[in-house]
Design brief:
2 strands; two-stranded antiparallel sheet; 23 helices; mainly alpha; single chain; 72% helix
């Protein structure tokens, strides 16, 4: 919801009246100040969730987020407002990745895709709610016009924190990992998961308990035939020490690296940066525009974006932004329902190709000087491309990548690795916010080609190294990664042999 609020709020007359007109740099700082605190806190979110449990980690994060929103609502200066956003970022970094992990861990395999995609649907619903909340409050005569959306956001966050703390059951897999078997069984019962489903879920998401038991079979020293008799030692899981550095251990570091890569590249697709707004000087024509760069999420500046593309009325451009949020919300619903049918690999590869084509199209139009603010078809092609870009992202990368980053991890590193991956997402978001204005200042189309190239490169690399996880057990995921690793080593060996033979032939010649 904050994403849908912050853009409209910072351009409201009452906000400008209270805090003055801000330069582009300060305006960018206001909007982007949530990013780095979120990145930093997300690196520690997994550790917090491992120590305290998933529900407590979520509750703490949402409470901190709500307190930050409340501070923004009561801000008496721009510095106080920015501090509030920083506190919001800390909270968001703590709870969001943990929420994905929690849903992944409590969900039966048959429903994993749709339910783990739920937060993405709520994000799009928050966009819609934020836009139209600001649209309804904008005409209030007092500062309540910009404070009201943050008051609502703070109240919703605090209520969610309380509900999470009081009624959310602990993750059964987290309980199992700590040897609390009876509590884990009770949690499965509360969740309504049958024995068959929970056994399949344990194999698919949290197989460490089974693995540890199998690895602990030892020969009984008192047996007369030590070769034939074994006795299982049920290792108490609390003795397994969990460390953040486990995400870099030999058996999981490939998966950690893949999760960090795809989550970072999700931002380099352009969803949170490539469509930065160029605000024309009213005294100049579009061809001699004086650019003021805005830092932040595409949808935070969507009203200005549509004005740039040719919708002259600010009200019309704002409504167009609201419609775009509705479109995103609508297409996310079927994407959520069919997440398991489409699969993670195909949605990432084909989605990346679609995103790159859209970005290349927009970049080509700007490079050919075909976009004019008051005439020509170019502006309408850009507007349609904006919608198309949002639709493709929402049904592919917006859903599949976040699921994949969490489900490929083993139980012992899932929270920490997912937090690390989300941290890379926030860092990439900030880098995009920092560098895109510089790129666009040098070239009106360069950033579009850059981010289009990033999405195409990601699609190619995922086609080469990203195994499908839909419907696979933990052992099958392990085998898939081993197969990819072996294939990569074989390919590298073959390439070295070819190069060696070529070099020898050249020397001999």
């Amino acid at each position: 919801m904050d994403t849908g609020i912050i853009g409209p709020v910072t351009v409201m007359k009452s906000f400008v009246s209270d805090f003055g007109s801000q330069s582009a740099t300060i305006h960018g700082l206001i909007v982007s100040s949530i990013l780095i605190p979120a990145a930093i806190s997300s690196f520690f979110a997994g550790r917090v969730a491992d120590l305290l449990g998933r529900p407590k980690g979520i509750a703490i994060g949402t409470l901190i987020f709500g307190l930050g929103a409340a501070l923004e609502a009561g801000a008496a200066s721009i510095a106080m407002f920015i501090v509030g956003r920083c506190i919001e970022g800390i909270g968001e970094g703590l709870y969001y990745g943990t929420l994905i992990v929690y849903i992944c861990e409590i969900t039966p395999p048959s429903q994993r895709g749709p339910l783990t995609s739920g937060p993405q649907l709520l994000i799009t619903l928050g966009l819609v709610t934020g836009f139209f909340t600001c649209y309804g409050s904008a005409n209030m005569a007092s500062s309540l016009s910009w404070r009201a959306p943050f008051i609502i956001l703070a109240c919703l966050s605090i209520v969610f924190s309380i509900v999470t703390h009081l009624w959310l059951v602990p993750s059964p897999r987290w309980l199992t990992l700590r040897g609390r078997q009876s509590e884990a069984s009770a949690a499965w019962d509360v969740l309504g998961v049958g024995h068959a489903e929970r056994e399949k879920a344990e194999n698919q998401h949290g197989g460490e308990a089974t693995t540890i038991e199998l690895n602990s079979l030892t020969v009984s020293p008192d047996s007369p035939n030590q070769r034939n008799v074994v006795s299982p030692i049920r290792t108490q899981l609390p003795t397994t020490k969990l460390s953040f550095l486990d995400v870099f251990s030999k058996d999981v570091r490939t998966r950690t690296a893949l999760a960090v890569f795809i989550m970072g590249m999700q931002q380099f697709s352009g969803i949170d940066g490539v469509l930065y707004v160029r605000t024309p000087n009213p005294t100049n024509s579009l061809s001699t525009t004086h650019f003021t760069w805005k830092f932040a999420n595409t949808w935070k500046y969507a009203p200005l974006l549509f004005e740039q593309a040719g919708l002259a009325s600010s009200q019309a451009s704002f409504l167009a932004s609201g419609v775009s949020a509705l479109v995103i919300f609508s297409v996310t619903i079927p994407a959520l329902i069919w997440a398991d049918k489409w699969g993670r690999r195909h949605s990432t590869i084909y989605g990346g190709i679609g995103l790159s084509v859209t970005m290349f199209l927009i970049g080509g139009l700007y490079a050919g000087n075909a976009v004019h603010g008051t005439f020509g078809a170019g502006r309408w092609v850009v507007i349609v491309s904006i919608y198309l870009f949002a639709v493709i992202f929402s049904i592919s990368w917006g859903v599949g990548i976040r699921i994949y980053a969490a489900e490929i991890q083993p139980q012992r590193t899932r929270a920490s690795a997912t937090g690390l991956a989300h941290g890379s997402n926030w860092v990439a978001n900030f880098l995009v916010a920092l560098t895109t204005p510089i790129l666009l200042e040098r070239s009106s189309f360069g950033a579009y080609f850059l981010f289009g190239g990033c999405t195409l490169l990601t699609a190619i690399l995922c086609a080469m190294f990203m195994p499908e996880t839909k419907g696979k057990s933990l052992d099958e995921i392990e085998d898939a990664f081993r197969g990819r690793s072996s294939g990569s080593r074989s390919l590298a060996t073959a390439i070295r042999k070819v190069l060696g033979r070529t070099s020898a032939a050249l020397v001999a010649a």
